[in-house]
User: Fold this.
Amino acid sequence: MDIANLLSPEGVIPRLHATSKKQALQELARHAAALTGLHERTIFDVLLERERLGTTGVGNGIAIPHGKLSGINRLYGLFARLETAIDFDAIDEQPVDLIFMLLAPENAGADHLKALARVSRLLRDKSTCDKLRGSDRADALYALLTETATSNAA
Assistant:
């Protein structure tokens, strides 16, 4: 599963302004609606429902909110670098400033899990995260996310 298959340049938000977890999810849902053609409230509700099961704040300033939706036929990824770190109820209780959201078709099954694992592996790399935190240009962030994925796969 290659990050470039999940993420398009339009799916990169270099300076997301949000002051809370809820606001961050709302903004991500708004951006995702433009990419997927789904209503932003539908996306937001799925993300919120998943957060109720347990936080997607995985630690080290990273969150990977995700959900399954009817009405899409492929996986979609969105990456956001927050202007200011926010409380995301992360497992290490640290604020989050990097978010990679995944949306999958309802019947995605193993593909959804493979994509989550791929994103998790990518964002576990401290030097990758340092580089992501050091850039606020969408094209540079996209290149970092997709090039790192390619070089790690080799």
Q: What stands out?
A: The radius of gyration is 14 Å. The CA atoms of residues 11 and 87 lie 23 Å apart. The domain at 3-153 is CATH 3.40.930.10 (Mannitol-specific EII; Chain A). The longest strand covers residues 76-86.
